[in-house]
Amino acid sequence: MLSTLVFVFASLATVAAAQQQPQDLTQFLKNQTNLTEFNTLVQSYGDIYATLSFSKDITIFAPSDAAFQKIPYSSLGGAFETNNSDIVRQVLKYHVINGTHPSGSFNGSFQFLPTWLNNQTYANVTGGQSVGVVEQAGNNIVLVSGLGSRSSLVTPDLSFSGGLVHIIDSFLVPPESFLNTASTFNLTAAGGAVVNASIDNYVDEHPDLTIFAPNNGAFQNIGTALSTMSSHDLAKVLDYHIVNGSHFVGYSSNLPNGTVLKSLQGGNLTVTFASNSIFVNSAKVIQQDLLISNGVLHVIDK
What we know:
The protein is α+β, with helices and mostly antiparallel strands and 302 residues long.
């Protein structure tokens, strides 16, 4: 009788231990009723699925089934409609970061986390293209990606054998070039000046750039001064607004008060904080941390 009880308890303990073991990725996705579309998509890219399945200590931001319904109305619509496998593959990589990052590790200060998106055709940031994460009012964890796109965590902290999954309500959008991003945010004067100065290829392709772009009002305030410059002289002016970080990108989280950056033109740019605002020299940053394919863009008022 005693031996029977011992056997029963041992069997129960074995079952309990097995139940406590995290599921592998295949079983995990199979059991998530809100990730059926994501499961189908990621399994259709066997190389990515295999890498995810064998990886350890990773975090996946997995779009919900509802997020797939938003694709046609986003900048990703064309790629998914035409089944552009190259772009979709990079989109999937942009949803994975190394390390396990529970929702409790995010707070009211922006964090910029490097992702698996490191193909230089789509991202030219050392260590992988970043996604911004911040906690906002109501404990809402928001992710900021390309073209100012925003996603929220709807079901956080789901464990599987390789790490964590956070279910999000919209796809993350890989950042685009400076010129495309400038157009989206109506920085038409800055975009036009970059083209006129013949530095458009540089600002769109050179790795690890931090760009402080004056808004349209700033260009209007200086009148016709820039329009009469040669492209060479105009490039010198614009170079003062660009920092070639060489493995450093000036996200706001990397710019503590008093930071001094050397511009491409050679002059110094000093970052200061006053009245809850960020200033670069005397220019006020009016929109910060717009992710671009090769770094970050901050909009300034002069």
